[in-house]
Design goal:
heterodimer; A: 424 residues; mainly beta; Rossmann fold; Neuraminidase; 2 domains; five-stranded mixed β-sheet; 4 helices; 10% helix; B: 174 residues; alpha+beta; 60s Ribosomal Protein L30, Chain: A; two-stranded antiparallel sheet; 6 strands
Chain lengths: 424, 174
């Protein structure tokens, strides 16, 4: 909190009521950021969710925006603002909007985005939503602004899954991409690990220890209906969906050593062995084109990341530096590999550009785990330890801007970033 | 096919569709609260991103009938040390005495490193004990090697004293 206040002071930003729920902790500053002013939405003072603040937090967490103070401007989407004071403040863009309670209890949310430099209307949208979808509306506004101004699709209205451990209870949560609005999908006295979103965002595969051994479930989020898909002799773990959603790659020890198998995600049935070694092969991750699987193997004497054809076959080694490289995650654009590497006894998130092999360490922490890319390939969520508590962080791919995600009490771990959601 | 038989098969098929496989639901009560609304929001307010919560009750724990049941391992090692041979021999005798006895060897690791890779490492420890039991004539069908990775440490703590207690395989009767 102190650190954030200091940063706010350094950045010359007043701490205002609109920031009250702003829980992003910025620990670095990016280089090229678009200056944007987001006026508090008219009605934010009586709305259950402060729309302006949510949009601000989203854009700041992306690392691509620098926020210009717009408090007290009294604007909404209908205003035709005088651009000169905003130019003086250094803003290139301005957002103004409103949130209004409707007679049926829903909320009407509207906004408009302005190009301050050209004095141009860049468009706006309106949504009529339930109180439970107010945050979703704010995230969609942030997506709109992000796409208009950066040219890339925003991923703020997506969801993440993660696991908490508190008082010997394990819970699997589904939350907004900012960690807020978390809803428990599963609660269990036994550990839950490795949640993995289905490509359509409707289901989570995960490993549960509820039957005193690791088995893999597929869980329909909306209904709570669960299906046991891998309960073979020995351990069953590390589920990964093929991009078409048809195959679930899992690690099974049924043949005496942990190897990667493919399962028909809908029908189940007999698993097909994909990796062939007498060593540990685990943590499969499909390339976004579905043609290859990245995985971890200690066939060379230490755990390293390899790649093999999705149907199995000869594997080629991908990581060569260090003696412990695990937990591969591939960005949706196919350009980046995020993984955890042990460096001098510390476990650190690294990002490799696959085309060049150039690798950059991203963090100052020492117990990083389980990276997962946002579906727009621009942010990574990962687990780490801060002050002895497990926490989730997001980072830009260059590591310059990190934010700690809001979330439940207790230890938070095992994040998986879900796909883009249909705008319905 | 008689109607009754057809209904039975249909019922079994539905059961299997519901459970997916042969997990013993007696041991693992699954409370499906599909009808319940999400806490803190009424059904109207839950909106498009509704999530139905499932709560699992505590499952029963196994008991250990013969002496020590834990085999400890060195760092980065999957070799059963000679000092634990007597533990394994005692359990081998006990398991062989009753062909109906079922035992799980549960492998564990210390907290360092990734959860999934540790799960695979714990599996290697469990397999090492399973093989040691096999060499003493225990039938494969009575033993299942499974892993908890780093999920169930015996001792909390971030030093070697704790870690050495957590790198283990537990012999657990089911």
């Amino acid at each position: 909190m102190l650190k954030r206040s200091l940063l706010c002071l350094i950045a010359g930003l007043a701490v205002l009521p609109a920031w009250a729920q702003f829980r992003v902790e910025v620990s670095g500053i990016g280089l090229t950021q678009l200056p944007i002013a987001i006026a508090p939405f008219r009605g934010d003072d009586v709305s259950p969710q402060k729309m302006g603040a949510i949009v601000q937090a989203d854009l700041e967490r992306s690392g691509q925006f620098r926020l210009i103070d717009a408090s007290g401007s009294g604007l909404d989407e209908n205003a035709r603002p005088d651009m000169s004071p905003w130019r003086q403040k250094g803003a290139d863009s301005l957002v103004a909007g409103s949130v209004t309670r409707l007679a049926d209890g829903r909320y009407d949310v509207r906004f408009r985005l302005w190009d301050v430099v050209r004095g141009q209307d860049l468009g706006g949208q309106s949504y009529a939503v339930t109180v439970g979808d107010l945050r979703l509306a704010a995230h969609r506004i942030a997506d709109f602004i992000y796409e208009k101004l950066t040219g890339d699709k925003g991923a703020f209205s997506t969801r993440i899954a993660y696991v908490t451990k508190a008082a010997q209870r394990y819970s699997l949560w589904v939350a907004d991409a900012d960690g807020e609005n978390a809803q428990a999908a599963l609660t269990s006295p036994e550990p839950i690990i490795s949640p993995a979103w289905s490509p359509n965002g409707a289901q989570l595969a995960y490993v549960s220890f509820e039957s005193r051994k690791p088995v893999v479930y597929v869980h329909d989020i909306a209904s709570g209906r669960r299906r046991l898909v891998a309960n073979f002799r020995g351990s069953n773990s590390a589920p990964a969906w093929s991009p078409d959603g048809r195959t679930l790659a899992v690690t099974l020890s049924r043949d005496g050593v942990s190897q990667i198998y493919g399962l028909d995600a809908a029908a189940g049935g007999e698993p097909r062995r994909l990796s062939q070694s007498s060593s540990i092969d685990t943590e499969p991750a499909y390339a976004p084109d579905g043609k290859s699987i990245y995985f971890v193997s200690d066939r060379g004497g230490s755990p390293q990341i390899y790649r093999m054809p999705a149907s199995g076959g000869a594997a080629e080694r991908v990581t060569f530096t260090g003696t412990y490289n695990i937990s591969p995650s591939i960005s949706q654009d196919g350009r980046w590999l995020a993984y955890i590497s042990r460096v001098s006894g510390a476990f650190k998130l690294h990002v490799m550009e696959l085309a060049s092999g150039n690798t950059v360490p991203i963090t100052e922490t020492s117990a990083d785990e389980n990276p997962s890319f946002a579906p727009n390939s621009r942010l990574i969520v990962y687990a780490t330890k801060q002050q002895d508590r497990e926490a989730l962080m997001t980072t830009t791919l260059d590591g310059k801007l990190k934010a700690r995600l809001a979330g439940q009490g207790g230890d938070i771990r095992e994040p998986d970033w879900g796909p883009f959601q249909k705008q319905n | 096919m008689s109607m009754k038989k057809y209904v039975l098969i249909l019922g079994a098929a539905l059961l299997m569709a519901g459970c997916g496989s042969s997990v013993k639901l007696d041991d693992v009560p699954v409370e499906d609260r599909s009808g319940a609304s999400v806490a803190g929001a009424d059904s109207n307010a839950a909106g498009k991103n509704g999530v139905t919560s499932v709560d699992l009750d505590k499952s029963k724990l196994g008991t250990a009938p013969v002496g020590p049941r834990i085999v400890y391992f060195d760092y980065d090692s999957y070799v059963v040390k000679p000092e634990f041979q007597s533990v394994i021999e005692a359990h081998a005798r006990y398991i062989k005495a009753d062909k109906n006895r079922k035992v799980a060897i549960e492998g564990h690791t210390d907290e360092r490193g990734g959860r999934e890779y540790n799960l695979a490492l714990g599996q290697k420890r469990a397999e090492a004990v399973r093989r040691a039991l096999g060499l003493l004539g225990v039938a494969d069908s009575q033993v299942e090697a499974v892993s908890f990775g780093k999920e169930k440490p015996a001792v909390q703590g971030g030093d070697e004293a704790a870690w050495s207690k957590n790198r283990r395989a537990e012999i657990s009767y089911r």
